[in-house]
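pinned: reference chain
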Amino acid sequence: ARPRDGIREILGPERNAGLFPAQYLAQTGRLLAENGRPREAVEFLREAVRRDPRNVRAKQELAACFVKLGQLREAETELRSALALQPDHAEAAEDLAFLLAVDGRWNDSLERFRRAMARRPERPETRMKYALSLLHRGDDGEALRELESLRKESPDFAPGRFNLGVVYARQRRWESAAGEFETTVGLQPDNADAWFQLAQVRRMQEA
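pinned: its C-alpha coordinates
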Protein backbone atom coordinates (compact mmCIF):
# COMPACT_ATOMS: atom_id res chain seq x y z
CA ALA A 1 0.00 0.00 0.00
CA ARG A 2 1.18 3.50 -0.76
CA PRO A 3 1.18 5.95 2.18
CA ARG A 4 -1.14 8.30 0.28
CA ASP A 5 -3.82 5.67 -0.14
CA GLY A 6 -6.82 5.82 2.20
CA ILE A 7 -8.45 2.84 3.81
CA ARG A 8 -11.16 2.60 1.15
CA GLU A 9 -8.63 2.66 -1.69
CA ILE A 10 -6.57 -0.09 -0.03
CA LEU A 11 -9.36 -2.36 1.14
CA GLY A 12 -11.49 -1.91 -1.94
CA PRO A 13 -15.02 -3.34 -1.97
CA GLU A 14 -16.44 -4.62 1.30
CA ARG A 15 -16.31 -8.17 -0.01
CA ASN A 16 -12.50 -7.89 -0.27
CA ALA A 17 -11.96 -6.28 3.14
CA GLY A 18 -11.62 -9.59 4.90
CA LEU A 19 -8.51 -10.35 2.85
CA PHE A 20 -6.56 -7.83 4.91
CA PRO A 21 -5.68 -9.05 8.43
CA ALA A 22 -5.82 -6.79 11.45
CA GLN A 23 -2.04 -6.90 11.73
CA TYR A 24 -1.69 -5.42 8.24
CA LEU A 25 -4.15 -2.65 9.05
CA ALA A 26 -2.37 -1.84 12.31
CA GLN A 27 1.01 -1.67 10.55
CA THR A 28 -0.38 0.64 7.86
CA GLY A 29 -1.87 2.89 10.55
CA ARG A 30 1.45 2.91 12.37
CA LEU A 31 3.30 4.03 9.23
CA LEU A 32 0.77 6.78 8.56
CA ALA A 33 1.12 8.02 12.14
CA GLU A 34 4.91 8.02 11.86
CA ASN A 35 4.60 10.10 8.69
CA GLY A 36 2.53 12.78 10.40
CA ARG A 37 -0.88 11.66 9.15
CA PRO A 38 -2.80 10.82 12.35
CA ARG A 39 -6.26 11.43 10.88
CA GLU A 40 -5.74 8.77 8.22
CA ALA A 41 -3.93 6.51 10.68
CA VAL A 42 -7.04 6.51 12.88
CA GLU A 43 -9.06 4.86 10.10
CA PHE A 44 -6.70 1.90 9.87
CA LEU A 45 -6.04 1.52 13.59
CA ARG A 46 -9.74 1.76 14.41
CA GLU A 47 -10.50 -1.00 11.90
CA ALA A 48 -7.62 -3.09 13.24
CA VAL A 49 -9.03 -2.78 16.77
CA ARG A 50 -12.53 -3.60 15.54
CA ARG A 51 -11.26 -6.85 14.04
CA ASP A 52 -8.93 -7.67 16.93
CA PRO A 53 -10.35 -6.10 20.13
CA ARG A 54 -7.51 -7.54 22.20
CA ASN A 55 -4.74 -5.81 20.25
CA VAL A 56 -3.38 -3.64 23.07
CA ARG A 57 -0.62 -2.07 21.00
CA ALA A 58 -3.06 -0.93 18.32
CA LYS A 59 -5.31 0.57 21.01
CA GLN A 60 -2.37 2.48 22.48
CA GLU A 61 -1.30 3.75 19.05
CA LEU A 62 -4.89 4.70 18.21
CA ALA A 63 -5.03 6.68 21.45
CA ALA A 64 -1.80 8.50 20.51
CA CYS A 65 -3.37 9.55 17.21
CA PHE A 66 -6.50 10.77 18.98
CA VAL A 67 -4.32 12.91 21.26
CA LYS A 68 -2.63 14.50 18.24
CA LEU A 69 -6.08 15.30 16.87
CA GLY A 70 -7.19 16.79 20.19
CA GLN A 71 -9.74 14.03 20.80
CA LEU A 72 -8.84 13.40 24.42
CA ARG A 73 -11.99 11.53 25.42
CA GLU A 74 -11.57 9.04 22.59
CA ALA A 75 -7.91 8.61 23.54
CA GLU A 76 -8.79 8.00 27.18
CA THR A 77 -11.35 5.37 26.20
CA GLU A 78 -8.79 3.43 24.16
CA LEU A 79 -6.11 3.62 26.87
CA ARG A 80 -8.45 2.46 29.61
CA SER A 81 -9.58 -0.37 27.36
CA ALA A 82 -5.95 -1.35 26.72
CA LEU A 83 -5.14 -1.33 30.43
CA ALA A 84 -8.23 -3.41 31.22
CA LEU A 85 -6.78 -6.07 28.93
CA GLN A 86 -3.17 -5.67 30.05
CA PRO A 87 -2.83 -3.75 33.35
CA ASP A 88 0.98 -3.86 33.29
CA HIS A 89 1.31 -2.29 29.82
CA ALA A 90 3.86 0.42 30.64
CA GLU A 91 3.33 2.69 27.63
CA ALA A 92 -0.45 2.72 27.95
CA ALA A 93 -0.17 3.48 31.68
CA GLU A 94 2.25 6.36 31.03
CA ASP A 95 0.16 7.73 28.21
CA LEU A 96 -2.99 7.71 30.31
CA ALA A 97 -1.21 9.48 33.17
CA PHE A 98 0.07 12.14 30.76
CA LEU A 99 -3.33 12.53 29.10
CA LEU A 100 -4.93 13.14 32.50
CA ALA A 101 -2.33 15.85 33.15
CA VAL A 102 -3.11 17.50 29.82
CA ASP A 103 -6.80 17.37 30.77
CA GLY A 104 -6.08 19.07 34.10
CA ARG A 105 -6.76 16.06 36.30
CA TRP A 106 -3.51 16.49 38.20
CA ASN A 107 -4.18 14.34 41.26
CA ASP A 108 -5.19 11.29 39.21
CA SER A 109 -2.26 11.87 36.85
CA LEU A 110 0.27 12.16 39.68
CA GLU A 111 -0.98 9.03 41.39
CA ARG A 112 -0.75 7.04 38.15
CA PHE A 113 2.77 8.29 37.47
CA ARG A 114 3.84 7.34 40.98
CA ARG A 115 2.46 3.84 40.56
CA ALA A 116 4.09 3.49 37.14
CA MET A 117 7.49 4.64 38.41
CA ALA A 118 7.27 2.34 41.43
CA ARG A 119 6.32 -0.63 39.23
CA ARG A 120 9.00 -0.04 36.58
CA PRO A 121 11.70 2.23 38.09
CA GLU A 122 14.14 1.25 35.34
CA ARG A 123 12.04 2.87 32.59
CA PRO A 124 13.38 6.35 31.70
CA GLU A 125 10.33 6.90 29.48
CA THR A 126 8.06 7.06 32.52
CA ARG A 127 10.09 9.72 34.26
CA MET A 128 10.39 11.74 31.07
CA LYS A 129 6.62 11.73 30.52
CA TYR A 130 6.17 12.69 34.16
CA ALA A 131 8.51 15.65 33.61
CA LEU A 132 6.59 16.64 30.47
CA SER A 133 3.35 16.58 32.45
CA LEU A 134 4.96 18.96 34.95
CA LEU A 135 5.93 21.24 32.07
CA HIS A 136 2.38 21.19 30.80
CA ARG A 137 1.25 22.19 34.27
CA GLY A 138 3.70 25.12 34.20
CA ASP A 139 6.00 23.69 36.88
CA ASP A 140 9.23 24.25 34.95
CA GLY A 141 11.42 24.09 38.06
CA GLU A 142 10.27 20.64 39.14
CA ALA A 143 10.34 19.41 35.54
CA LEU A 144 13.94 20.61 35.23
CA ARG A 145 14.97 18.81 38.41
CA GLU A 146 13.35 15.62 37.18
CA LEU A 147 15.04 15.80 33.78
CA GLU A 148 18.44 16.62 35.26
CA SER A 149 18.10 13.67 37.63
CA LEU A 150 17.12 11.48 34.67
CA ARG A 151 20.23 12.66 32.80
CA LYS A 152 22.43 11.42 35.65
CA GLU A 153 20.75 8.04 35.73
CA SER A 154 20.25 7.53 31.96
CA PRO A 155 22.77 9.76 30.15
CA ASP A 156 22.27 7.97 26.83
CA PHE A 157 18.47 8.32 26.82
CA ALA A 158 18.12 10.68 23.85
CA PRO A 159 14.49 11.82 24.39
CA GLY A 160 15.36 12.86 27.94
CA ARG A 161 18.36 14.87 26.75
CA PHE A 162 16.25 16.51 24.04
CA ASN A 163 13.52 17.58 26.44
CA LEU A 164 16.08 18.85 28.93
CA GLY A 165 17.41 21.02 26.11
CA VAL A 166 13.89 22.31 25.49
CA VAL A 167 13.56 23.36 29.14
CA TYR A 168 16.96 25.08 29.08
CA ALA A 169 15.94 26.92 25.92
CA ARG A 170 12.70 28.05 27.57
CA GLN A 171 14.85 29.51 30.32
CA ARG A 172 17.13 31.17 27.72
CA ARG A 173 20.09 29.12 28.93
CA TRP A 174 21.43 28.84 25.42
CA GLU A 175 24.78 27.18 26.15
CA SER A 176 23.20 24.46 28.27
CA ALA A 177 20.44 23.94 25.69
CA ALA A 178 22.97 23.64 22.85
CA GLY A 179 24.89 21.02 24.84
CA GLU A 180 21.78 18.89 25.28
CA PHE A 181 20.78 19.15 21.61
CA GLU A 182 24.33 18.31 20.53
CA THR A 183 24.23 15.24 22.74
CA THR A 184 20.85 14.29 21.28
CA VAL A 185 22.02 14.41 17.67
CA GLY A 186 25.13 12.48 18.69
CA LEU A 187 22.87 9.73 20.04
CA GLN A 188 20.28 10.06 17.26
CA PRO A 189 21.86 11.53 14.11
CA ASP A 190 18.54 11.37 12.23
CA ASN A 191 16.59 13.34 14.86
CA ALA A 192 15.36 16.26 12.74
CA ASP A 193 13.73 18.03 15.70
CA ALA A 194 17.00 18.07 17.62
CA TRP A 195 18.93 19.43 14.62
CA PHE A 196 16.30 22.17 14.18
CA GLN A 197 16.41 23.12 17.86
CA LEU A 198 20.19 23.14 17.83
CA ALA A 199 20.21 25.52 14.86
CA GLN A 200 17.70 27.80 16.62
CA VAL A 201 19.76 27.89 19.81
CA ARG A 202 22.96 28.63 17.92
CA ARG A 203 21.27 31.60 16.24
CA MET A 204 20.29 32.90 19.67
CA GLN A 205 23.86 32.48 20.89
CA GLU A 206 25.12 34.53 17.94
CA ALA A 207 22.49 37.27 18.31
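why pinned: Confidence is low (pLDDT under 50) at residues 12-17. The chain has 13 helices and no strands.
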